[in-house]
Amino acid sequence: MLAVLLLTAAGCGHSGSSLRSGSSRVVGGVLTGSVIAVHNTWSCSTPVDLDLVRVQLDDTTRDAVHIGPGCTGTIRRLEILGDGAGLGPGGDGVKVHAGARDLRVLSGVINCGRAGPRKHQDAIQAMGGTSVVFNDVTSTGCANSFMFINTGKGRRGTPTGIRCVNCRAVSHNYSIFVGSSESSGATNGVFTSRVPPHVTPNAVSPLVAGNHWKSSGLPRRRRR
């Protein structure tokens, strides 16, 4: 039987929202099983060995998942539900912060909702972290990039070893943007967007190879 756990702002970041924990439990300091978050950003700050993480946000400007300090381990399946409109995050799908390290996402889908006002909406935005790798992820509906990698404000951490392997995405502006970072990017992916995979001079040893890109033919999207 599935247990239901309701968490307030102190537990999950937003009052009045809920996180439903199916068969999840902590074993030896590691969160195991599956997590289902509804109307809430899910934040990873502990070691994990999860079969499933599913996040459903409705008509919101929030991000869906934050990967932060202390998050390490394995997520076998990540599902962020979205339809480019009322369902899905209006912010980023996944945000990787400095302090996250040695995390593997083995498969998944990251779909965005309607972009919030002045939101820089990416399926995956990495502003820090070390050795965080996404595999076999598909994505649609994100207003800016599928994957945006760049040192965050205050230069608190340089994204290092942040990668997406065998990923497929349709996004509006960029497919992959690799800014200030080390050994990061995407390989063997299939992307459709306005701009092909882009690497700036600030990227050290970027990993952008074996990708297939198709132009969407869309005009540049103005921020609302």
Describe what this molecule looks like in 3D.
This protein is an all-beta fold and 224 residues long. Helices cover 2% and strands 48% of the residues. The protein contains one helix and 25 strands. It has a 16-stranded mixed beta sheet that branches. Strands 4-6-9-12-15-18-22 form a seven-stranded parallel beta sheet, with no helix packed on it. Strand 2 and strand 3 form a beta hairpin. It starts with 8 loop residues before the first helix and ends in a 9-residue tail after the last strand. Mean pLDDT is 87; it is low at 1-17.
Highlighted features:
224 residues; 16-stranded mixed beta sheet; 7-stranded parallel beta sheet; mainly beta
Brief write-up:
Helices cover 2% and strands 48% of the residues. The protein contains 1 helix and 25 strands.
Structural class: mainly beta
Mean pLDDT metric: 87
What level of helicity do the residues show?
under 10%
| First-residue to last-residue Cα separation | 45 Å
What's the gyration radius in Å? 16 Å
Q: Main β-sheet, in a few words? A: 16 strands, mixed
How many DSSP-defined strands? 25
- H/E topology pattern: HEEEEEEEEEEEEEEEEEEEEEEEEE
Strand content: over 45%
Which geometry do the CA atoms define? globular
Identify the quaternary structure here.
Answer: single chain
What is the overall number of helices?
1
Uncertain stretches: 1-17
Topology:
Layout: H1 9-12, E1 18-20, E2 25-27, E3 30-38, E4 42-44, E5 47-56, E6 65-67, E7 72-75, E8 78-81, E9 94-96, E10 101-105, E11 108-110, E12 122-126, E13 130-135, E14 137-142, E15 145-149, E16 160-165, E17 168-171, E18 174-178, E19 181-182, E20 185-187, E21 190-193, E22 198-199, E23 203-204, E24 207-209, E25 212-215
Parallel strand pairs: 3-5, 4-6, 5-7, 5-8, 6-9, 7-10, 8-11, 9-12, 10-13, 11-14, 12-15, 13-16, 14-17, 15-18, 16-20, 17-21, 18-22, 19-23, 20-24, 21-25
Antiparallel strand pairs: 1-3, 2-3
